[in-house]
Amino acid sequence: MERKKKEMIRLERESVIPILKPKLIMTLANLIEHGSDRTEFLKLCKRVEYTIRAWYLLQFEDLMQLYSLFDPVSGAKKLEQQNLSPEEIDVLEQNFLTYLFQVMDKSNFKITTDEEIDVALSGQYLLNLPIKVDESKLDKKLLKAYFNDHPRENLPDFADKYIIFRRGIGIDRTTDYFFMEKVDMLIGRFWGFLLRVTRLDIVFARKSSGQRKNDQKKDDDLNSEADQDDLFVERLRLEKMDLSVSNLLSKTTIQEPTFDRIIVVYRPAPTKSKTERGVYVKHFKNIPMADMEIVLPEKKNPGLTPMDWVKFLVSAVVGLVAVIGSVEMPKADLWVIFAVLSTVVGYCAKTYFTFQQNLAAYQNLITQSMYDKQLDSGRGTLLHLCDDVIQQEVKEVIISFFILMEQGKATRQDLDLRCEELIKEEFGESCNFDVDDAVEKLEKLGIVARDSLGRYFCVGLKRANEIIGTTTEELVLKAKQGFANS
């Protein structure tokens, strides 16, 4: 199957290091020449992790304690037991959001912007129905109050009702016959031809201009002077493919970039009988960009679109005019009338059954998102985020120290570049290394300093282990070993 011009999406590199920590540590250790240094390096990696984990322990405990008050399942009872005033509860929930957003930033999650969502939803993948959020069922005070106190740039229009965090980029491919989709696309192209012939396409120009704007936005993104290291991902959609009789019945592979992780935060709107205080935090994986609607909260039940109803009405009018014209002829041909009516009824039936098929596919996607793509929610998601923060910080610190140890002094910019090159050369991965956070932790640990020229340098491995000192975890492990040997 031949494809038209490639449809590419430019994405910024992620700051997250996509390498498992054990693999990272062992690979770097194996690059160290002397066995004694290798042993000291492995000891240092453990001590770095134990120390960073201890630094975050109190902050994470505060986060979990606050969330226990706003857990949608059991939070209401705990709030009642505290006997707090509404104003005091407002302060606590804002404190919880402050901790939550800090953890999200440390985990390298980003808030999706309107532009990102427009580009993501400018095409269709497996979901072919327009999905809308029932905004009347969502609280509009909680997030609005937070962003009033903590303003951010490029917030989406829906930021007062719900927030979508995203991290990581992947690829999803689906191979199938897509017979009904291909037939529907061919009919749609024929419909577009009729609109152009009858000049009715002018009526729908406003609708199509929005799509052209999105497509132009993507083209502008590609043509702009972007970072050469940005990630370019190709979309393979049926809408952009040339179909023929030969490949109509053959299998087709479509492709869509995915958000590797998505976290949605929102609160349901209060009702007359209940003041809602629960905060929902839902965690999803591998969500195709074009199908991102499946993670939206409080979705409306999809129905026929205004365009579908227009097609129904226009088809009915055209059919009625054709039938009346045939009847008024001196010799009315019943077969012509039957053919016209059959075509109109068939097209209307096709539109209806296509909708039913898309509705079934939508329900399957929602079920899949709940059972396969939803990783966790609430407390489970927060615990995952807390561990994720520690893993990322440990990897950043270890890589930075290794570079300074092996390659000597470096400016902050040079260190950033060297770390990214190491990740690329040894692991075949690309990321936007967060060198600022790494050197801050190294200086706090006391194992890296700056010379008179502002260049960073590290102490020796043995001295680094002495500076950090024996950690509580190591003492517990020694005590366990002693107890086992006794």
From TrEMBL:
The chain crosses the membrane at residues 309-328, 334-353. Keywords: Membrane, Transmembrane, Transmembrane helix. The keyword Phosphoprotein does not apply. Pfam families: DUF3754. Signal peptide: none annotated. The keyword Transmembrane helix applies. This is Aminopeptidase. It comes from Populus trichocarpa.
